[in-house]
Amino acid sequence: MPGKRTLGYEKQSPQTEAQMSAIADVARLAGVAKATASRALSGRGYVSTETRAKVIAAARQIGYVASPNAASLVTGRTQSVGVIIPYISRWFFGEVLESLELALLEHGYDMTLYNLPPASPERDRVFEFFLARKRFDGIISVCVALSEQEVDQLHRLRRPLVGIGGPIRGVATIEIDDVAAARLATEHLLSLGHRDIVHVGGSQADEMDFEVHSNRLRGFEAAMTEAGLPVSGCFYSSDFTMPGGYARGLAILGDPRRRPTAIFAASDEIAFGLILAARELGIRVPTELSVIGIDGHPHSEMFRLTTLAQHPRTQGQLAVRTLLDGLASGSSIGASAVLPTSLVIRSSTSAPRALRALRAE
Amino acid sequence: MPGKRTLGYEKQSPQTEAQMSAIADVARLAGVAKATASRALSGRGYVSTETRAKVIAAARQIGYVASPNAASLVTGRTQSVGVIIPYISRWFFGEVLESLELALLEHGYDMTLYNLPPASPERDRVFEFFLARKRFDGIISVCVALSEQEVDQLHRLRRPLVGIGGPIRGVATIEIDDVAAARLATEHLLSLGHRDIVHVGGSQADEMDFEVHSNRLRGFEAAMTEAGLPVSGCFYSSDFTMPGGYARGLAILGDPRRRPTAIFAASDEIAFGLILAARELGIRVPTELSVIGIDGHPHSEMFRLTTLAQHPRTQGQLAVRTLLDGLASGSSIGASAVLPTSLVIRSSTSAPRALRALRAE
DNA sequence: CGAATTTCGGGAACCGGTTCCAGACCATAA
DNA sequence: TTATGGTCTGGAACCGGTTCCCGAAATTCG
Known about the structure:
Two copies of one chain form a homodimer. By secondary structure, chain A is of the alpha/beta class. Chain A contains 13 helices and twelve strands.
């Protein structure tokens, strides 16, 4: 039923043409005003039960879907959340992303992804053009090391903001305690009797990952120092990848005279590489070399890697909850949280050989 | 020159109150009409050089950013693209995603991500609620096996649609020829003299990955049959992961009597697992066992894996170009493309031992 | 039973842009 | 000189919803 359609091009006076917008169609079909149809469909305001039923039936009949643009324009809400993230394909980031997406979808929010490269014209463009458009009700920042200026830019958007994996000035942050995790991992090795321990972690120069690298190094050094052990010369930098750990492993383990009895790797993927390097050099794990990582990567089971598991999906879920709470309450800043890690002991760590020989006597 | 400003709150007649929307502010500051400001900023229509300069200066002065919602409402363009994808954290998908994001950003498009689980209420909700909102000018579907009904739903959105990694009815698709790639990989092994070859690939029951699994199996079987070799009992299914290949490898290679001389793995990650399983069993690669994969995974270098490299980033770039072309031309369907793969020979493949012994005589 | 309050529905303004249309101006062609 | 056409600008309609405000009806209360 198209209703009273005009005959077309004649006269064209403004009031002649009935509005053809979708919700107006629904309203006409249901025999009510646009305002009533809107109230009935959104559930806000007074509408009688019969009227609501009529409107809903009409909407279903013509397959009505509200235009989010029109709604956003007047409400100021977009029902979508922006996520800025430096990597997509690395394990931790992929996990976080999947959990964010799932949690947001559950609440009816779209997720718009902004992959943020290191300082570059493209990165600036994301801030000045894409983020400035404000097509989101809030932002989740995943392990992005933001410059002071960038933090200011984000705050100027006047949107709730939640960080994952590192503190941002004036922003609720979900994170693990990297210093404590690194200390725990190191202490595990120390408690097994190791004295000759090295740490393979991310380069300090690689700004991308917040202060994750330096925090894990600090935790390592704190544990070592506390145990009365020297720390100089005990750190090797590496890519945060399996090949990175592999290359470092060949270099570190290649010289039998300078070979440590245990390695604390800043990530599981580095640890995998180290284990493979050790195997290639004929060094048995854990008999001759203990290796511990941080992450709880799904492959760690296969490598029988002892690791400090963090739980990226939990971090993602919590970030969404924090953001949506902030959105609902109108307060732009929620509570930060430090999530626990768990030590998963497998068979890549054991007491050093010397100690075992001693005990066997 | 603000023109005839009213004195304020008196009377409140509709035409009295000047509109306060952002572009109206710009227009007022520049001393022109909204329409002129819009033309000056968007570059459409006639505007004199001086007027344009004035408007742009005014816009810069008050930090004007156009509301994409308002613009979308009238133009029907959202300047954003929806991406539906089954996984995020697997290598191929992560790569595709990063390249899509980069290419879209370059053209000023946002990327909204819809992570599509296998058949489930959540999946239905993505189609019926999220996609129905049409907050995108087009859709890129990455390796999603769509049901007939879902394809219909997508077409009903009347938006350009591009697929990556498998044909969709009525849609331009960017893909590699999986049958040919598998055949090539198998032929590489055959040409080295292998007769006893098995294929470790994805389970046919796993619908998620389109027909990738069965296509690669078909390519393998075609090459084998052509070489006059039997194919029954030569296929083992596995997870598309390193641990999956590892577990399969231990099972297949554990029994020395039934051990093949070469394995064609449907993905590099499976191949990595197979290589690790071989090492664990003391089987030397490639001396006693050749392994070839498909992907061109960044870790393949480290494993010295011979592989058929596909190029996910190229696929992503091409998908974006195809989609944006379709958007510009108004035609909803662009040209499909089959991208080439390249054989990267490293040292995980060689002639079988028996043959080498024969040659040495 | 009349007054106050709550429920319900409609008209119209409004969100912030884009675009159609008409009119003014200027230059060139007839 | 007048017709023609391109350039430039402003007014107003419009996209498709939401919400304010107001009046009528129904309900509760004194």
